[in-house]
Amino acid sequence: MSKTSKKKASSTSLVASSPGQSPKKDASSAVVSSSEGPGEPQRSHLPLWPEWNDTEVNAEKWDAVKASKDSKNLFDDPEGKVELPASLRVHTWKRPSEYIVNKTPVVVDNEVAFDLTSANEHLLSSELMRWIISEIYILWKVCNTGEGKPVSAETVSNTWRPWEHIYSLCKAGKGHIPLYNAYGKYVVKLYWMGCWRKITVDDLLPFDKDNNLLLPATLNQSELWPILLAKGILKVASTDVPVYSSGRELGEFTVIHTLTGWIPEMIPLKSWYTGDIWKFLKENIPKFQYEEESSEEKAKAADDTTAKDSDVNEINSETDTATAATTIPQIVVCASYQPLHLLEKRTSVLTKMADSSESLRQYGLSQLYSHPVLLTRTRDCPLAAPPKPPPVPNWKLIRPRKQTSITDEPKEPPVQKPEEFIEVCSPFINFKLMTVAAHDMEQGAVKRGGYSSNLASFSEMDDSENDHPKNDIIQNSPNTLDVTETNQVTAEDKNKGESIANDAERAESTSKSEKESDNKDKERVQTAKESNTVLQSQDESDKPLLQDTWVDLHNFTKCFQTLLVFHKPDTYAHQCTTAHCQNSVSSRLSASPLSNAMASTHSVTASARQPESNTTYHTQSADLKCTYFLFVDNLLPTEIVICFSALAQWGESMEEKRVSPTRPGFLTARPFSWKSIASELPVLQIQTTASKAALLSLPPGRHVLHIQTRASFAIHVHLCSMSPFVFGDEETVVPHLDKESLRFCEQATMILRALARVVSCFSDPEALPSATKDLERTHGVGIQQQRVGFACSQTHTGVLKRAQQIFLVIQVFNEAVYQMFCTALGRKLTSDELFAVQTLTGDPSPHGSNEKAADLQSESNPEGWNGRQVTDKEMQAAAVLQAGWKGYLVREILTAARPGTKENLSVTKTLEEMWVSVESDLEKHAVALLRHMVDNGEGIAELYPCREDECNRITFTDYSVPVPEVANSWILIFREVFHVHKNMVLVPKIYSPLPVCILHVINNDTLEEIPRVFNRVEPHLYTPNKSGYTFVAEAHTGDTPLSGGKWCMRLIGSREPVPKLAKETPNNNFSVKELKGYYIPNRKNIISRHMVKVSSDHSATVQFQTSQSDVYIKLSILDNEKEVISNQGKGHVIIPVYCFLAGNGGSVAQTGARQDQGSLTAEGTLTGGKEGSDRHPTDTLVHKYCIQAEVLQESWPLDESLASFIQNLRDEERNEMKVFGDFLDGTSASVGADQQNKDGQKSAPKSTHKVKEREKDKDKLTSKSSFTMGQVSNLDATKPHWTLRVVSDQSKAGTIEVKKDTEKLEEIRAMKLAWETAEPGRAAKAHQNRLRYLKELQANAEGKEPITAETGTPQSQQSGEISVLSKNISKTDIVYTPFFRKSLPQPRLKDQLIEEEQRRERSEKFQSFRLIWDNILEQRKQEKITRREMMKRQLETYVGFQDAMDAYRQKMLQAREAYSTHVLEQQPLNKEEMSVEATEQVELEKNPTQVQPGARKSANKKK
Fold it and tell me: Terminus-to-terminus CA distance in the chain, angstroms?
């Protein structure tokens, strides 16, 4: 965060607020563009506009002497010719010396006024040129005009002059005058991408085929400053990307921002926001006043100024600073509207265009010539002051009569429309465009039978210079534009399928008579043009720069589509800027990137850190993405102006821009919290291709926003606010979040001050009740309720819940007050002080009971009470004593709380003495008081408005270790145990220079892994446990080792203290036992098995990896062949941590507690529970661990080309199982049976000797086999293989041993050796029998059938049976084990007793089944009876309903019949009465003069 100095009230000029004030370093880039002349080559790669430096400009070599010696060696812009709008066609380029012949060219001639409209009427067809001219006029009026008076050099000393942006043959400074440089080199100072830039231009001037200058100029042709300034502005405008489908020549580029550095905020105008727009304009621009009122206000202001000047000596510097800080930022408000786009096909848009065009025409503006206008004043009263009413005589004021008008209908008061007008200023109000229309017709803009627009930009122009379509001349009248618009729409409706090219062909085929009439019209237009030019030159001195008119608010939103608000950055108290550039820009354009505008917020170490594994690789095709954080903490609403500048294109030609559309830059701001993974909706979004600002409004409180930006090449962010804020990367913002929020501190201070008032007036009977009520209002509940006693007799659930909450708040508040006094005094309270606190809070409960209980427990119990049970009478006696003591204490507290008593004075004195320590650091103790309440009371934070700030309060601790310098390998970076003492939410976040790094968090008590979301550990509520939590970080290194890299883990918590390490410093020195081997497929899909032996309890990390990355594998740790933990993965799997227990250490209970069973799924979450715990071998202390890896889903298929390699591996494995292989291989296979027996007996001693040698070398054989299959030194990486790593601390590397599981092989070996020992020569005999069997098989294959001596059966038949049996045995695909009858451990003879027992069991089974069957039948019978009874009851109920309905219906019918009878009886009587009345009426009509006497008397009474 950076702050700028306050701007003085009188400094309103541009120079004081912008040029030359940027402290940034120089930086350059490169530019690629194209010239505008036909056939011109593209621009070369040259350095882009460096940042402005007065020293460099003063040392600039203008080479004016070189130009005087050689007029041909003039300066040419190395970037190429400037890029003009598409509506302006360049024919030739000239130097000023070629164009200005009669006079010597000058840069500035008239320093008082200028006219950019009269001489540039041929340029007004270009939208960009109109914006340049209009915004220069607006800046001139805003900065140089006061109170409607013209600018003069005598009255205005510190003004903005447009030519001061140009430098040539002069020194950089205020008020410089650039001189004409014959060499043609000029420097323009403009604001772009967050800083002032030095833009070099030449003096080449573009002209069209009619020799009209295509750049703005004044009436003085020798004055060059508008031309040079426009060339620099066009260079900056070329970086903007207009939307070609809209038909506009510029996007969001603004000239005012380029000339001043003011921040442009663009607000779209909508009709439904009219009230808000009027309110905004009334607050930010001056208000129209009558002359009498303005003079009176000036007089009051003068009096106030005199009074202030008289008291200057009494005002100190602090008051001045506060006044400056509270000043309102200065802004300039403009409005703009879009040009008429007749190619639009949407009817709704065309309707809006028609309404806007009609509304603009009423105020002297034209939609064909869109440009920005300046909003100067608002008016809510008539222009002329209404006449004052005549004075009323005093005698008429005495009892005035109300004037009433008698009407038949109620009179509604007339609704008067409020006076709401806005004054707009523009150089093109009531501007005569006849000469421009004639000029456009000469250029071929209007074509016969086609679109009749006056603008050349709305029609295509042929590339040939000689083809000029002709058209009739529109009559010279003020309504010319109206006719033009009507003709355009009509022509478009009539000629939907015709193009402008067809119109040109029809124009070429016109008759000669039409051409002659066109020539006559041309001459007439030329005459009108010359006459208008003469008249305009005569009236130039009387013509104001800007015309003004009043626009009704109702029509304001129809006329204008955008509100342009320019904020002056220097008027804001707090500012911050930052900038970044794509690295690919420098590599592409051979230049250095843009400089960082805010170096303090982006350190080198911070930029090197990449959160998690989201590493951004900058390539030429990738966009530049940056992430920032914004921190705001304020008691009042905060408004921050965020300006975002994006460089979306660079160096592309016009054709490239049209072919490949450019993506705009984006800025998004959304609420953020490190303690949550939920993504909030954005509160601000900015999309631009140039510079655009938006206002971010935040409510009171603490806010953290995550700001993400994206652009193609470069970005710049500028923030301005009157409130303090922190903006930057994570390293900049996070340190500010561990403090309490301002609203939290304010609430805590209010509570403590209310408590201070209670203490100060504790003995005042009049002030104590009001002070107590104030304290109740501050923390939500009353202390008086605790004193009187809270009654919870209400049975309503809501009332009871509310009562419980109030009681909890009271209890927590009382404890917090006690803790606050203890902290302030730095010791425990004495008995008097404790009684004073109890009296103050009205709580008789013993505060600090935990400390007292601990002290009592430390004391030794009486001798007679050791190991003795308390009786019921003793319990009742203790309860009576406690009740009596509590009642006495409550009475003492009530007496001391009553003002005027002796005890009250003593308590008041004690409280005042204690309060002195609290007042020494009031804010600290207030925050501690409220923090104790929030942490220890559930739901108390919801009572205060600062609850919303708790989500953004964090504390953190960083742990960093060096990264091992290993290439292309898996490594373990971090593994430490953290102990949590309180329930708290923790979020670990890692910063790794490695692209792939994953963190695992394991609960050591349950072996559960904390869930992860996208390889990031999610925020989790950590609860205290016995063994703590292990944090394990694994990573994969790249192809090249990383030297000097640092890995860091930031542990973010919600409260202090954050869990600490079990050690003092993190350990990064690990010992890795790595075992490799080839994969041999088998029926059980087991890849490898390794035994683990430990001499003491040992924690290790097990990682398994396959050569093929898409293999699904399961890694398990078995204890006595029972699975205790497992995990699944694809190509890579890890068990983060497991504690291998020594076989002779600890008890059975400790073993079960420390080694709870569970299994990790593929995502790393723990499954299991009771089932796993039952399988855990907790009934033994002998642990036998095995690490086993399996292939899942047959996901590791092997190619047929590897069949021979796999067979060789299987043969080697089979050879390892041979015990006497070396000895038996030397025996002869041709020896007979008798000779073999003899040789076997003779070779028995030798065999025994061999056996002894085998026993001696048993360990050697085991180690050899494990080396062969476990640790292959020369492993072929092209063959399928696996890698097993067991990682442990370097200090405990000697306590663990990992080797291949050869237990079964050793058992077979031991069995064979035992057989040989018991029967010497057994191996040799078996070998000879095998050889004989093989020989017989060979003979059978040759067709011989030898007869055996014992059975006389042909040998071929016997061998065939054996071969068939061997084939059947080899087919082990079907498992027959479930079909085998289970046998007893020992054979048992089946006698009569067993048969009788079996018979009895069968009969019992039959009997039990019969009972069950009978019960079921009886139950079904009962259910059937029940259903029938239910149906019967339903029928009876239905019949009862029917009877009741019939009775009710009969009753209704009887009543109806009685009523109809009564009506029929009354009808004759009614007829008789009607006849009598008719007779009387006839008599009255015959004698109307007769009046009854009664009526006359009633009339007299009324009088």
Answer: 89
Q: Please give the single-letter amino acid code of residue 1111.
A: V
DSSP state for residue 1162 in the 8-state scheme: T
CB 50 within 8 Å of CB 17: no
Strand partners, 195: 192
Q: Identify whether the C-beta of residue 605 lies closer than 8 Å to the C-beta of residue 681.
A: no
Query: Which pLDDT score, from 0 to 100, does residue 483 have?
Result: 33
Q: How far apart are CA 21 and CA 53, in angstroms?
A: 9
DSSP letters along 54-107, please? Answer: HHHHHT----HHHHHH-TT-----TT-S----TTS---EEE-HHHH--SS--BS
| Structure-token pair, residue 656 | 């490239």
Q: What angle do CA 192, 195, 199 make, to 5 degrees?
A: 55
Residue 803: its H or E element: helix 797-825
Helices (H), 826-901: 831-841, 849-858, 872-897
Question: Cα(835)–Cα(847) distance, rounded to whole angstroms?
Answer: 10
- d(Cα 424, Cα 378) in Å, to the nearest integer? 9
Q: Contact 719/725 with Cβ under 8 angstroms? A: yes
Name the DSSP letter for residue 770: H
- SS3 sequence, 105-160? CECCCCCCCCCCCHHHHHHCCCHHHHHHHHHHHHHHHHHHCCCCCCCCCCCCCCCC
The tokens describing 682, both together, are 């954005």
Residues pairing with 961 in the sheet: 1047
| Cis before 1057 (ω within 30) | yes
Residue 634, Cβ neighbours under 10 Å: how many?
A: 20
**Nearest-angstrom CA–CA distance, 654 and 90:** 15
Give CA–CA dist 1094/1142, Å, rounded. 6
Q: How far apart are CA 193 and CA 191, in angstroms?
A: 7
Three-state DSSP state, 85:
coil
The tokens describing 1102, both together, are 């097990």
Quote the CA–CA distance of 872 and 437 in Å, as a whole number.
114
Strand partners, 419: none
Helix (H, G, I), strand (E, B) or coil at 944: coil
Integer Cα distance of 1365 and 1359 in angstroms: 10
| pLDDT given for residue 1039 in this prediction | 81
C-alpha dist (Å) from residue 1429 to 1008, 1421, 1435, 1441: 58, 13, 10, 18
Residue 1102: Cβ-neighbour burial (10 angstroms; 0-12, 13-18, 19+):
buried
Per DSSP, 1251 falls in state H
Q: How is residue 305 written in tokens?
A: 């100024």
* Closest C-alpha to 25, from 489, 594, 767, 549: 594
Element at 1020 (helix H, strand E): strand 1020-1022
Residues of the chain short of pLDDT 70, as ranges, are 1-47, 64-72, 145-158, 243-247, 292-328, 341-345, 405, 408, 411, 432-544, 583-622, 651-661, 780-799, 846-867, 1144-1181, 1220-1273, 1343-1384, 1488-1503
pLDDT value, residue 862: 62
CB 917 within 8 A of CB 824: yes
- With beta carbons less than 8 A apart as the criterion, state whether 187 and 59 touch: no
Q: Which region, left, alpha or beta, applies to residue 199 given φ > 0 means left and ψ of -120 to 50 means alpha?
A: beta
Q: Crossing angle for the helix pair 1233-1242 and 1322-1341, nearest 10 degrees?
A: 160
Q: Please report the pLDDT score of residue 1216 as a whole number.
A: 75
Q: Report d(CA 1319, CA 1312) in Å as an integer.
A: 10
> How many other C-beta atoms can be found within 10 angstroms of the C-beta atom of residue 111?
12
Residue the block writes with tokens 């690629």: 32
Distance CA 522, CA 471 (A): 10
**0.85 cut: is pTM over it?**
no
Residue position matching structure tokens 């097990």? 1102
Write down the residue that tokens 């594998």 correspond to.
1113
Please report which helix (H) or strand (E) contains residue 548, including its range.
strand 547-552
| Residue 184 CA: distances (Å) to CA of 40, 47, 59, 71 | 20, 20, 17, 11
How big is the chain, counted in residues? 1503
Spatial contact of 337 and 369, defined as CB atoms under 8 Å apart? no
